[in-house]
Amino acid sequence: MIRVKNLYNRYQTKESTIEVLNDISIQCEKNEFVSIIGPSGCGKSTLFKIIAGIINDYEGQIEVQGSIIYMHQNDNLMPWRTIYRNIMLPYEIKKTDPDGTFINQLIKEFELDGFMELYPHQLSGGMKKRASLLRAYLTDCDIMLLDEPFGSLDALTKQNMYKWLLDIWSKHKKTVLFITHDIEEAIYLSDRIYVMGKRPATIVDEINIEFKRPRNSDMLLGQQYLEYKKRLMESLAK
Amino acid sequence: MKKKSENTANKILPVAVLAVILVLWELLVKLKDIKEYILPSPSAIAREFVVSFNLLVSHTAITLVETITGFIIGLITAVFLSLLLDKFMTLKMTVYPYLIVTQTIPLVALAPILAIWFGFGLLPKIILSVLVVFFPITLSLTEGLSSYDRDLYEMMTQMGASKKQIFLKLKIPSASVHFFSGLKIAAAYCVMGAVISEWVGAQKGLGIFLTRAMSSFQTAALFADIIIIIVISLVLFKTIQFIEKKTIRWRTEK
Q1: What CATH number has the domain bearing residue A40?
Q2: Where are the domains of chain B?
Q3: A122/B253 Cβ within 8 A
Q4: Does ipTM surpass 0.90 in this model?
Q5: Has residue B144 got a pLDDT over 90?
Q6: What mean pLDDT comes out for the span A157-165?
Q7: N vs C: which end of chain B shows fewer Cβ within 10 Å?
Q8: What residues in B contact A139, CB-CB < 8 Å?
C-alpha cells in the first residue's frame, strides 16, 4: 500500500527555483494496479524516485507498507553477466539460497527458459524487459514501481507484453504502480489511472477502469474504451 | 563462409604488403648500390641476426627482465593507487593533477636524472619502466571505477547491497573495459621506458646496444635491435589482448 499526501518537490538552479511536483496526492491499495499517465518530462519519474526513497528532498507525507523495488526505464541488466546470473543478483546480495524449483517455474512463466546462459546483448528488447522484471520480482518485494517499462518496445511486442504482464500479475498478486505516456497501455492494464499535468505537475484527473479481469484486447475496440480514451485525452490536454 | 574468407584475406593482406616492401627494399639497395651503413638491405639485417645472435640474445634478456619487472611493479602500484583514489575523494582531488604533471616530464630528461641518483644498474631502468606503465593504468582504472551505471547503483542499493558488494559486483566489472585499454597502452610503451633508460648508460641491454651500434655505424645491427624492440612490444600487447578476450567474454561475442 502506498499513500502520498500533499507532496511537493522543487529544485534550485542559479537563477530560479523550479517546481517539479506541486501538491501530489495519490493512493495505491494492496494488490492494486495503478497507472500514472502524463506528458514526458512532467516529473513522473521524480515522483517514483521519491516513493522509492532514492530522492529524499521533498515536502509532504509518504506512507508505504511493504518493500519496494523500482524498475527503471532501461533494463539495467549487467552486460557482463549472463541472464541467469543477472536474475540471481537479489539472492547474491541478500546471501540467501534460492529455491531451485521455484526459480525454474518462474523462468518458464517469464518465457525465458533456454536463454539463461546468454548475455543481455544477445537478447531481444522484449526478452530483456522480461528478464529485468523477473529480477525485480525475485527481490521479493511487495510493491513494484514500473517506470515506462515498455517505452522502448515496438507496438506488436508491447501487445504481447501486456497480456503476459497481466497474466503474471493475476497469478502472483503484487501492488503495481505504473508510469506510462501511452493511453492504450494505461487503460488496458490498470485498475485506476491518475493523470498528471504539465510542470509543475499536479494530479488533474483520476479514472477508475471498470473493465473486468482477465482482460483481452477486444476491450480496446468497444465504446467504453473510447470513452475512457476521450476523457484521458481531454485531461491530458488541460 | 564468405565471412571466413574475408577474415583470412584480412590476415594475409598485411603480410603480403610487408613482403612486397621487403622485396622492393632489397632491390633498391642492390640496384642503387647503397652503402650498408646508410641503409642495410633486409638480407643484411637478417644476416646480422645470425652473426650476432648470442650478443642480441644476451642484450634482449636484460631488457626483458627490466621491462617485465617494471611492468609488474607498475601494475601493482597503479592498481593500489587507483583503489586508494577511488576510496578517498579528497586524495583523488589532491593527487590527480600531479599525476598528469608527472607525465609531462620527457622520459629523455628523466633518464639521466635517474642515472645520477641510482647509477647505471638495473634499478633506474626498472624505475623508468614503472613510470611509463604506471600512468595509463592508474588513469584508466581510476576513470573506470567511477564510470559505473548510476541506475544500476540505485537498483543495487534498493536491493540492500553493501558497499563491498557494490564495489565487487558493480564497480570492478564496470572498470574492466577501461582497465584493459590502459593495460594495453602500458604494455606497448613499457619496453620503450627500459630502452631509453639504457640509452643513457648501462652495462647491457637493447638500449645500450643501440647506441653502440650507432656510434660504430653498424646500421644493420641497429635495425636488428629495433626489430627486437618491436617484437617484444607486440608480444606484450598481444598477451594482454588475449587475457582481455578471456576475461571480458561478454564483449567479444558481440
Answers
A1: 3.40.50.300
A2: 1-33, 46-252
A3: yes
A4: no
A5: yes
A6: 85
A7: N
A8: 158-159
